[in-house]
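pls read this stuff:
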Amino acid sequence: MALDIFVSFLLQIAFTVGIIFLFGWLISLCNRVFYYNFGRFGNAVCYITGFVGTPIHELSHALFCLIFFHRIREIKLFQISDDGTMGYVIHSYNRKNIYQRIGNFFIGIAPILVMSGILILLAWGLIPDFITEIGKVKGVDATNMREFFGHVGNVTAVFFKCASTWQWWVFLLVGLFLAMHMTLSGADIRGALSGLIFILVILAIVDVIVGLISAEALGKMTDAILMAGCALFCILLLALLISVIYMLISFIIKAIRR
């Protein structure tokens, strides 16, 4: 029983927090390469895309500050500064309040969640076939891992198949301003990690209680979390695909400049 609870806990974390940090890191890596390939013009390109992306990034933090009852002391939606900081949200909270401390995690990763949500809404309006394909993705467990990644392959294929329409190109252009500024800053990551520990502890306690009451109930709870994680995987995959496309374009531009 103890092993089953531990395995369920690891799966729940891997398909929620793990997916968020994995895709966040991959998107960040693509974006850094994208700007680096512009050389001395990288900062200028970053400011151009940031004129739209940065305010949405900071408003995402502010939105979750309100949800978790943090006090917003100062907010800057966009600026041009010597240290490269284009925006920020300064907030405070009651350290004795567990709900508010958990909120640090969601406030930290807010740009990934909110901007991915906006991309999905744009895709629903511009490339609905892609959204339909996401709806076909099923949950994953040890017995259908291959089937899941087969569905992910289909989702990716449908995304690029939509390139034959003008709506896809409009979506890709708008997606530039969002995906390129979804990257979390060091402060964002530190804030998220400070709240993550409370989430892990609470989830572990819930798993132990549910597992001791009913192994079947724990299994169903884990399946539901994995199903949500699979949907999250496909949503974040969309942002990653946009980042990869623009990273490849930046290599072409770099080659032309040379």
The helical segments are 2-36, 42-67, 98-126, 128-134, 145-161, 166-179, 186-213, 215-257. The chain has one domain: 2-39+109-257.
